[in-house]
Design goal:
This is Bifunctional protein FolD. Keywords: Amino-acid biosynthesis, Histidine biosynthesis, Hydrolase, Methionine biosynthesis, Multifunctional enzyme, NADP, One-carbon metabolism, Oxidoreductase, Purine biosynthesis. Belongs to the tetrahydrofolate dehydrogenase/cyclohydrolase family. The protein is α/β, with parallel strands linked by helices. The protein has two domains: 86 residues, Leucine Dehydrogenase, chain A, domain 1 (Rossmann fold); 125 residues, NAD(P)-binding Rossmann-like Domain (Rossmann fold). 42% of the residues lie in helices and 15% in strands. It has a six-stranded parallel beta sheet with strand order 1-11-8-7-5-6. The chain has a three-stranded parallel beta sheet with strand order 3-2-4, with helices on both faces. Helix 2 packs across helix 10 and helix 6 crosses helix 7. The longest helix has 23 residues. The radius of gyration is 19 Å and the shape is globular.
């Protein structure tokens, strides 16, 4: 039996229609969600991401600002810009594109963004709220993973989820979100012994390690839901996930392709966060 593909593009498009409808309602009240994206330097992948975010804002009727700064911009200059955006009423969400040049301290920059405008979900206050289960702006890729699973009609509660990878951007937050959905969660990483044996007990397997085709069928329980967060460029220029798609296809029950699985969800969840931030900031004023 071949696994059912989880089509991230179709799910993402459906969510964007919902966001567009909500945005139109807000616009009728004179509120336009605003997103500021800050890009420091000339990283090619970052430039592509920033372009995609700008395009998404245009499609959904958001107000957007893109601040492109030279690679040699000082940390003080960047923090001054963030301070200004924190105080700017037309901006509800601030995203500083990572990675930053080496002379800028990433943590200081993330900490400087107002938690109310932290649409990336990386601020310590946002992370704390995520862990204790309070309402917060969620990290975009992990939130997208949960939406993909739910909107495919898969029940998370009571399932055993194994997350391979423990990064602050994906592994840890997606584990917390799976816990919130009442899964039993195991986190595996580079020091985990018997990783394939553990992974093979998963009803839901989420992989985010940044190594092309590293996870084969020996990691997958027959019928499992496999969510591949990895996106790696091969020497031939093609994109590949962390999961060996062809190898796993006949074992898994559901699987996300790369590209076209988790990828489209990330920017859509960023848009959803910006809309939510706009609503919350408006409510705080009233």
């Amino acid at each position: 039996m071949t696994a059912q593909r989880i089509e991230g593009k179709a799910i993402s498009d459906a969510i964007r229609i919902e966001i567009g409808e909500e945005t139109a309602k807000l616009a009728a009240q004179g509120i336009v969600p605003g997103l500021a994206v800050v890009l420091v330097g000339e990283d090619p992948a970052s430039k592509v991401y920033v372009g995609s975010k700008e395009k998404a804002c245009q499609q959904l009727g958001f107000y957007s600002e893109v601040h492109k700064l030279a690679a040699e911009t000082s940390q003080e200059e960047l923090l001054a810009l963030i301070d200004r955006l924190n105080r700017q009423d037309t901006i509800h969400g601030i995203l500083v594109q990572l990675p930053l040049p080496k002379h800028i301290d990433e943590k200081s920059v993330i900490d400087a963004i107002s938690a109310a405008k932290d649409v990336d979900g990386f601020h310590p206050v946002s992370v704390g709220n995520l862990v204790i289960g309070d309402d917060s702006l969620l990290p975009c890729t992990p939130a997208g993973v949960i939406e993909l699973i739910k909107r495919t009609g898969i029940e998370i509660a009571g399932k055993h989820a194994v997350v391979i990878g423990r990064s602050n951007i994906v592994g840890k937050p997606v584990s917390m979100l799976l816990l919130r959905e009442h899964a039993t969660v195991t986190i595996c990483h580079s020091r985990t012994a018997n990783m394939a044996d553990l992974a093979k007990t998963a009803d839901i397997l989420v992989v985010a390690i940044g190594k092309a085709n590293a996870i084969g069928r020996e990691f997958v329980k027959p019928g499992a839901v496999v969510i591949d967060v990895g996106i790696n460029r091969l020497e031939n220029g093609k994109l590949a996930g962390d999961v060996n798609y062809e190898d796993v296809l006949d074992t898994a029950g559901y699987i996300t392709p790369v590209p076209g699985g988790v990828g489209p969800m990330t920017i859509t969840m960023l848009m959803q966060n910006t809309l939510k931030a706009a609503k919350q900031q408006q409510a705080a004023k009233e």
